[in-house]
Specification:
168 residues, alpha/beta, 5 strands, 51% helix
Length: 168
């Protein structure tokens, strides 16, 4: 396993609420640094996208992550909602790329599988496992837990890739 600790920013994008989570991890042990929810209110979409961008810029400036792990957009029943979600995701990614972070993307099922062990896990299961894995006193808010799960997914996935490469 890698002995190098990485500071990872995880983002669960949303057009109404965007979750973020910052962890330090060496691939085996992870420590919670910060997490929260950016609540976007009922302004028009351009204003909400601007706020996602600005708030993520602030999170990056404050916590100085080395990379971004972000949830991919999944296509639900409503194409318009998926497009709006994609725009919020793009605003968050743009803020991180502007700051020089590399971007790693994960499918929702892969995130749940990495954190819970079940790709079909529900939000409460994700919250519970994030609390356990990070040694938190209580479950984080759902969107913050999802963002922390994305960061944990990257940590676990990256650690596995490094281990495989070291054995070749």
């Amino acid at each position: 396993m890698s002995k190098t600790r990485l500071r990872i920013l995880g983002i669960d994008p949303g057009s109404r609420v965007t979750g973020f989570g910052v962890i330090d991890s060496d691939g085996r042990d992870s420590r919670h640094i910060a997490s929260g929810c950016i609540r976007l209110g009922k302004d028009g979409l351009p204003a909400r996208l601007g706020r996602v961008y600005a708030e993520i810029v602030d999170v990056v400036a404050e916590y100085k992550p080395e990379l971004l792990a972000v949830e991919q957009v999944f296509m639900a029943r409503n194409a318009a909602a998926a497009l709006t979600l994609g725009q919020a995701r793009g605003a968050a990614i743009a803020a991180c790329v502007q700051a020089g972070l590399t971007v790693h993307e994960y499918a929702p099922r892969a995130i749940k599988l990495a954190v819970v062990g079940n790709g079909g896990a529900d939000k409460k299961q994700v919250q519970h496992m994030v609390r356990i894995l990070l040694g938190l006193n209580q479950n984080p808010a759902a969107d913050a837990a999802d963002a922390l799960a994305v960061a944990l997914c990257h940590s676990h996935t990256n650690s596995t890739h490094l281990l495989i490469r070291s054995r070749r």
